[in-house]
Amino acid sequence: VPLPPPFQVPLPIPPVLKPVSTSGGVDRYEMTQREATAEILPGVRTPLWTYEGTFPGPTIESRRRRPVTVTHRNELPVPTVVHLHGGRTRADSDGYPTDLVLPEGWPGTAVGAAPGMRNGHGGHDMSGHGRHDMSGTHGMHDPRAVETTLTRDYTFPLDQRPALLWYHDHRMDFTAPAIWRGLAGLHIVRDDAEESLCLPAGRRELPLMIADRAFSADGSLAYPALDPTLRKQPGVQEPYLAGVLGDVILVNGAPWPVHEVDAARYRLRVLNASNARHYELEAVTDDGRRLDLVQVGADQGLLAAPVTHRFLPIAPAERHDVVVDFSSVPIGGRVMVVNRLGSGRTRDVMAFRVARKAKDGSRVARVLSTDLPTWRRSDAVRVREFSFRAGRMRGGHGWLIGGKPFDPARTDVTVRLGDIEVWRLIADVHHPVHLHLVGFRVLSRSGRRPLPHDAGLKDTVSLRPGEAVEIITRFDAYRGRYLFHCHNAEHEDMGMMANLEVT
Ligand code: C2O
Ligand code: CU
Ligand code: CU
Q1: What is the residue extent of each domain of the chain?
Q2: Residue 290 alpha carbon to ligand 2 centre in Å
Q3: Closest C-alpha residue for ligand 1 atom 3
Q4: Fewest CB within a 10 Å sphere: which of 164, 255, 396, 415?
């Protein structure tokens, strides 16, 4: 496929979804998951799986503590699961990987299937593990064994710090190909305290969902399907074992886009929605100057105080809230966002063209928030240790937590509601580890101080090769069954996920 030259396509901003009703103190939304096509690369149409026909899906804008209900209808050819990443959500709305929304006419819908009907958990067929393909129809042979509905209401209390959350597919064994095909969108939570800080807002606050993709000659998304004949040849690695990378960098669904800005401060709400690619972002001007990246927030909202970076690492599923000041760039000048870890075309991410002088009433306060939890190691009632390593599972390669691949029928960890715990996470290679339900703080990296971008409240932490990272959290939200997993989406599908029961 012909790739567009960098920094030519305008940056799209995902549409904001309108609620169908706001009565009774609840914002109600409806979303249909359906197939659609988009002209991502010039002259070709790319078939996608979408929320509401767009990639990224529409953005939901919420106020803190104002509950939201989203009714999802599945018109895709496969079952789906919706998870609000970073949400403090009750277990029945958290998108457990076997809590399916079935498409109409899916085999078994007649058995389990009046809308809203619950069939209970357990007995899930694990044979789909490691057998990826784009149709995603393996591995779900007995829908009676899992919880299924044709539509599903997801309720989000949003009793949490204002933050950039994101929703995405979470179906067991097929999360990676589903996200790859387009099932991801943003959900922003706001409150008055944050707004009173006068950070750049309105046109000067930009959501940036970065995701790499690969394309076939006809414009369709290329995702490596495992050729069963490869499996029999000794020494041949499954092609996606390390995770799937693309050679086209999309921001908000557009390849290497450009955005016109005022010579003023902008608030960039960056999400790495890539399946497996890590980035180290820097902002470089035409004349080779590096602009400061002033981080004001992390996965779970505002930092205590801003942290200035020259470059900013971001692992899959992490979010950074960053203020960049374009006022020192001459009018007509350009600022490129590049990935120091990329090469050739994967080095470029996007660009800003500084179009005009403008007034700027925004500021970055020296104190951004005072409500961050201050858990100390001595507050923890226990320390647990988990290894994140490659291993053999069911005769093939997989990714394991504590030596085990994911099993929905096994409880891996039971924690008591309200307990503070330290978790020591040990990695062989890069693993971005994500906890559902609760935010955590990074205590240490291999016995040393956390990195500058570990500040604040996180829900995903990037374990680097060979590292042991300690995190601390309080399991204070809800009781029920949740997950923790690697957010390299292929690792997650290949077993690197575990059950966390809050009792
Ligand atoms: Cu972003 Cu369990 O997921
Ligand atoms: Cu999550
Ligand atoms: Cu991993």
Answers
A1: 23-190, 202-356, 377-502
A2: 33
A3: 85
A4: 396
